[in-house]
Write a structure and sequence with these properties.
single chain, Alpha-Beta Plaits, GMP Synthetase, Chain A, domain 3, Rossmann fold, 30% helix, TRM5-TYW2-like_MTfase, tRNA processing, tRNA (guanine(37)-N1)-methyltransferase activity, S-adenosyl-L-methionine
Length: 316
């Protein structure tokens, strides 16, 4: 079952009164999300029975995995199941799949859930009115998480930032970019104006991917976290006897891993801040346990790409 389906299934099991209470909130106290949820429970007789029971639960996809919620209570000898387990529909089949000799009983119990037991996606699903689209995804750049907002989300942006700060480990800053920006509002360096909506008011961060470390400032340079796999794939495709020219190198996500392979690399960017961070990142990533990779492996230029093509490439 996909995460989206799990979110939908979990919310459908909540009471209508609870959903009405939190729908449309622009701010909240954590106590607002305290509620009672009835869950199916399996009672086991011996610890040796736990493993075969869990195998069946996994096979039939009846497991429950909630933040800060124990699905096994050894003191009560019980295993909690997902609310989609219907005793009348599923108990008989469950027992047929279970190994012979394993004794267990089924029941339902009420459990108290709090703000800590909800995921960020579930909270957004509960709070946003039906006519507001859900937030499609987040991008992590070091300790920063970037979220793309549409106009209907604007009035909820502080709440969105707070929830992400609470729910996503290691995140210290939440920044927002919205779909209303036009090309004229972007500058020639492709730097989008971000707004800090929660946490530390700083756009400087350190991002790590595929063994490389990149320092950057989101307010000074362009960065796209969705290209992480492309960075790796392209850097591995370049023939070792080639000369690589990266006309819009940014902070070096392509140029640095290519140069680390010993391939002569020309890294150019029109943005002087990109070259500033590229130099910092080259110094960090070219340092190895065996010493430093030759600085001749990468040549950095701060020019228009057309100039590099017309002038610098003629000297190769």
């Amino acid at each position: 079952m996909s995460e989206k389906s799990k979110t939908k299934s979990f919310i459908e099991g909540l009471s209508d009164d609870f959903v009405r209470k939190v729908r449309g909130l622009l701010d909240f106290e954590e106590d607002f999300f305290t509620t009672q949820i009835k869950l199916p429970v399996i009672h086991f007789q011996s610890k040796k029975d736990i493993s075969p029971i869990l195998k069946v639960i996994k096979k039939l996809d009846f497991g429950i995995k909630r933040p800060h919620f124990k699905h096994i209570d050894y003191s009560k000898k019980q295993i909690r199941l997902s609310s989609k387990f219907d005793r009348e529909k599923h108990e008989e089949h469950f027992r047929k799949v279970l190994e012979r000799g394993i004794q267990c009983d089924f029941s339902e119990e009420d459990f108290q859930f709090t703000y800590r037991n909800f995921t960020a996606s579930e909270i957004f699903e509960l709070i946003f009115p039906a006519n507001i689209s859900r937030i499609s995804g987040f991008a992590n750049i070091g300790h920063i998480i970037q979220v793309n907002l549409k106009k209907p989300h604007f009035e909820y942006k502080k709440l969105i930032g707070r929830v992400l700060l609470d729910k996503v480990p290691t995140v210290k800053t939440v920044i927002a970019k919205n779909d209303s920006l036009t090309e004229s509002e972007e500058n020639k360096f492709r730097i989008l104006p971000f707004e800090v909506i929660a946490g530390k008011d700083s756009l400087q961060t350190t991002h790590k991917e595929h063994g490389n470390t990149f320092h950057l400032d989101m307010g000074e340079t362009y960065w796209n976290s969705r290209l992480q796999e492309e960075h790796k794939i392209m850097s591995e495709l370049i023939d070792e006897n080639s000369v690589c020219v990266d006309l819009c190198c940014g902070i070096g996500p392509f140029a640095i891993p290519i140069a680390k392979r010993g391939i002569r690399t020309i890294a150019n960017d029109l943005n002087p801040d990109s070259i500033k961070w590229l130099r910092i990142n080259a110094e960090i990533n070219f340092s190895t346990k065996r010493g430093k990779i030759s600085k001749d492996a990468i040549t950095m230029t701060n020019k228009d790409g057309n100039v590099v093509i017309k002038e610098d490439l003629l000297n190769l």
